[in-house]
Write a structure and sequence with these properties.
The structure holds two protein chains of two kinds. Chain A is α+β, with helices and mostly antiparallel strands. Chain A contains 15 helices and 21 strands. Chain A has three domains: 246 residues, no CATH class; 140 residues, no CATH class; 156 residues. In chain A, the strands form five sheets. In chain A, strands 1, 2, 4, 5, 6, 7, 8 and 21 form an eight-stranded antiparallel β-sheet that branches. A five-stranded parallel β-sheet of chain A has the order 11-18-19-3-20, sandwiched between helices. In chain A, strands 12-13-14 form a three-stranded antiparallel β-sheet. Chain B is mostly helical. Chain B is built from seven helices and three strands; from the N terminus they run αβαααββααα. A three-stranded antiparallel β-sheet of chain B has the order 1-3-2. In chain B, 33% of the residues are buried.
Chain lengths: 704, 151
């Protein structure tokens, strides 16, 4: 757990007379409820975004590095000098920012204090926005402290590398982040990213109130929201589910291997012109089903033989041939002639089949080649996308977004396809990169199956060609017999015998291969059986008790905040998909179709949902970081009394820190306006810490 | 009342149509293929054309190493005017008239960007391809351009 003690920004401007002439703001925070109140556009959001930025959480605001921040922190700001009459117009001096930084002092529950320093606008390239400097001391003491280190925020491994900021930060708040399933990581696992967890506790104004964990960035973690809740509530399910995923992954691998083996049967079948029967369609653990697999050979339209029978037949044929005395051609001429005709027709049929087969295979080979070319083009595109993203992340083109023609002030952007009259909506670099990555995946799968199919067909082609060769030899010897001297011995008989012997050898080999495949299936079935046992044996957990208490707390809070879209009994926390761990609406307790709470609540009631859900997660979550920030919780015509209830509730939570940013001149609904005094009159004076920005802009000259 | 909202469907566009990608390549072309950090529009268009296709590249490379003295019909680079506009506005590039011909000059700021791109080792493949073409003398280009061959 941790809390924020102090936030300070320091800005050096073009009008700073010396390096001590610094602008910015400096606020202290207390344990318990902190209220930052101010009129509109006084800089509440600026203060809030500085907290996000210092904690390396600017991704939740929708950008990397200082892109997520207001221009008053990185470009220029105005300090008003006078107000012209009573009009709204303000006169002021514009200050150009030369350098700006944010400092944040935080403290964990072991009373260890750390100060984080992060550059917003650096003077040169060495002052990088993607680095956070850490001092293990209070903010006022950092000048006399040696920094603990400079850690990086944006970049690969920022959550588990020793030099990654989040690795240090999670250690500081006492987190042991679990490994969770990841859809694209090579190892299939990644840490549960800290930025994901923080989206459950830092609710920002524009997007934060639109859904539960609406600002959660995408990292490729499977079922990200569920994982965060499991972690916060310390449910055993998070470890079980990782184990389950591992087991399921091995299970899928086994099934895949099983299917490959089944394919191998059909391959063997074609190679030997056999018919393998009783192959189980799906994976089975029944030994008998595997043993039943057997082969038959069709030798005539109506005649089917088993492997043994066929082998015996062939052996008999050899035996018969051996028994017969060598015959000369004359006595056999008619037979040789018919045989020659028959074989010739068979040969021609087979030949045209093989030609067709080969040309089809060549088409596939061409396809394979083309798709491979396409893959290398996509890979190159992805590489260049990565390069360009790095260029922007490191801000190598300074002020990129503000490219404006100095003469006609037209904005020039990176889109060169659109014209004045036709705008082509395009994916952003990041979006396009993910699109290309998924395309790459599809192509890789296609390539893999094409490759398998080409290999298999190649072997078959070889087999066909061998059969053709054998036929050719027989035809050749038959034709030789036909033109040879009638008194000579028949050569075709000898060739026939040799080929019969070859067939017998092949049949014996076939049996060995068939048995090998069956043994392989048995092994897979054993492994499958063990995995099923392991999956069944995953321990039953105590999670239900935790979830029940979380649910009760959430519902109590919800109705304390005057939720009235539905009855209390109709609301529950769902235990299974869809909306697993999230509130749902059910018409009655036994309703089998839970519906989204968002659709079934009014807009302001949905905001109440986010209040109660966020607070309940902290109350019941033994892994919660402790801090909650609400930016402008009075959304969508919330009643003043509900807002008061929220303030009362949070002011009573003294062992954690809650920071609420609120406007004081905002129209809540037709009848009510947020009035600071009215809001605070229901609270005990010493139960909160108030930072009133009033009518002033937040950035001022800092006095040392 | 039923409110119908039409969502725009975004398209995936090749990075070759991204002005900033082109800008990086443009800066590299002027730096490596121009003389004293300036290059004519003709040269810029020609190198862009060469980078578009392996076959084109071979033609220009052969010209460079004197295996051939002609060019095949080549075409202008799409959208280069917008890229140049960004370059002028952001002061990476400047226009200069040298002996009655417009030349694009790489400014110090532009060179700094290129340096930092090299420091981060980005776009090295493309930049190395541009480097291997290197400086192309004007008269050689002029001659080759007056002498197009189909192959």
């Amino acid at each position: 757990m941790f809390k924020i003690n102090r936030l300070r920004t320091e800005i050096l401007t073009d009008k700073s007379e010396n390096i001590d002439d610094i602008y910015g703001f400096d606020f202290s925070f207390n344990q318990g409820l902190n209220i930052i109140a101010g009129e509109n556009s006084r800089g509440k959001t600026t203060v809030n975004s500085c907290v996000f930025y210092a904690l390396g959480m600017e991704e939740l605001l929708g950008g990397h590095n200082s892109k997520a921040l207001d221009k008053a922190l990185k470009d220029s700001f105005i300090i008003k000098t006078e107000k012209v009459d009573n009009s709204e117009e303000e006169k002021g001096t514009t200050y150009q920012i030369k350098r700006s930084k944010v400092f944040l002092e935080i403290e964990n529950n072991k009373a260890e204090v750390a100060t984080l320093e992060r550059v917003i606008k650096g003077i040169d390239n060495d002052e990088k926005q993607s680095n956070v400097t850490i001092y293990l001391s209070k903010l006022e003491e950092i000048d006399s402290t040696i920094p603990r280190g400079v850690l990086y925020v944006n970049g690969q491994g920022n959550n588990d590398d020793v030099n990654g900021f989040y690795a240090w930060f999670s250690n500081f708040i006492g987190f042991n982040l679990p490994k969770v399933s990841h859809s694209s990581s090579k190892s299939h696992y990644s840490p549960l990213y800290l930025q994901m967890i923080f989206s459950s506790m830092l609710i920002e104004q524009t997007k934060g109130w639109s859904d539960f964990f609406a600002t959660m960035p995408y990292f490729g973690v499977t079922k990200p929201k569920e994982k965060v809740i499991e972690f916060l509530l310390d449910l055993e399910e998070i470890n079980n589910s990782t184990q389950r995923d591992t087991l399921n992954r091995s299970k899928n691998e086994i099934v895949e291997n099983w299917n490959k083996s089944i394919k191998a049967f059909s391959f063997l079948e074609k190679q030997n012109n056999a018919n393998i029967t009783s192959i189980p369609e799906n994976i089975t653990t029944e030994k008998r089903d595997i043993e039943k697999i057997s082969a038959t050979f069709q030798i005539a339209e109506e005649e089917i033989l088993t492997h043994q029978e066929y082998l015996k037949l062939k052996l008999n044929e050899i035996f018969e041939l051996e028994k017969k005395p060598f015959i000369n051609i004359e006595s056999n001429k008619d037979k040789i002639l018919t045989q020659y005709e028959e074989n010739k027709t068979k040969y021609n049929e087979l030949k045209s089949y093989v030609n067709k087969f080969e040309s089809k295979l060549n088409v596939e080979k061409l396809q394979y080649h083309n798709i491979n070319n396409q893959l290398s083009i996509i890979e190159k595109e992805i590489k260049e996308h990565n390069n360009l993203i790095k260029v922007f992340n490191n801000d190598l083109f300074k002020n990129k977004n503000e490219a404006k023609c100095p003469t006609c002030t037209q904005i020039i952007n990176e889109d060169i396809l659109s014209t004045d009259s036709i705008i082509i909506p395009q994916l952003s670099l990041e979006e396009n990169k993910s699109f290309l990555l998924s395309q790459k995946k599809i192509i890789q799968t296609t390539i893999k199956s094409l490759k398998d199919s080409i290999e298999e067909k190649g072997t078959l082609l070889q087999y066909f060609k061998n059969s053709l060769r054998n036929q050719e030899i027989i035809i050749k010897s038959l034709s030789k017999d036909l033109i040879a001297d009638d008194r000579a011995l028949s050569e075709s008989e000898v060739v026939k015998k040799i080929q019969l012997q070859q067939q017998v050898q092949n049949l014996e080999q076939f049996e060995i291969q068939l048995n090998d495949l069956k043994i392989n299936l048995m092994e897979l079935a054993n492994k499958y059986h063990n995995i099923i046992l392991a999956l069944d044996g995953l321990e039953k957990s105590d999670d239900e008790r935790v979830l029940a208490s979380f649910e009760e707390n959430y519902k109590n809070l919800l109705f304390e905040f005057e939720y009235d879209s539905n009855e209390k009994f109709q609301i529950s926390i769902n235990r299974s998909d869809p909306f697993k761990y999230f509130p749902v609406y059910k018409r009655s307790k036994s309703d089998p179709n839970p519906q989204s709470i968002r659709i079934n609540s009014s807009a302001s009631d949905f905001v109440r949902n986010i209040w109660s859900y966020t607070l309940a997660l902290r109350d019941n979550g033994s892994n919660h970081p402790g801090l909650i920030i609400f930016d402008e919780p009075g959304q969508h015509r919330t009643k003043l009394s509900s807002l008061q209830a929220l303030f009362i509730k949070t002011s009573k939570i003294t062992d954690n820190q809650t920071i609420i940013f609120t406007s004081i001149d905002k129209q809540l609904n037709e009848e009510e306006k947020i009035d600071l005094d009215g809001l605070l009159e229901v609270l005990d004076r010493d139960s909160y810490h108030l930072i009133n920005l009033g009518n002033d802009k937040v950035i001022k000259q800092l006095i040392f | 009342m039923i409110n119908i909202i039409l969502d725009e469907k975004k398209t995936s566009i090749s990075i070759l149509y991204n002005a900033y990608y082109k800008l990086v390549i443009l800066l590299a072309i002027i730096n490596h293929c121009g003389s004293k950090n300036k290059a004519s529009l003709q040269l810029i268009h020609l190198v862009f054309w060469a980078l578009r296709d392996e076959r084109h590249y071979q033609v220009l490379y052969d010209l460079k190493i004197n295996i051939r003295s002609t060019l095949i019909p080549w075409s202008f680079e799409f959208g280069l005017e917008k890229v140049l506009a960004i370059g002028y506005i952001e002061e990476y590039l400047e226009k200069k008239i040298v002996s009655n011909q417009l030349e694009i000059v790489l400014t110090n700021k532009g060179q700094d960007v290129l340096k930092s791109i090299n420091k981060y080792e980005l776009f090295q493949e493309e930049i190395n391809r541009i480097k291997s073409i290197g400086w192309l003398p004007k008269n050689k280009l002029e001659k080759a351009n007056n002498n197009w061959k189909l192959l």
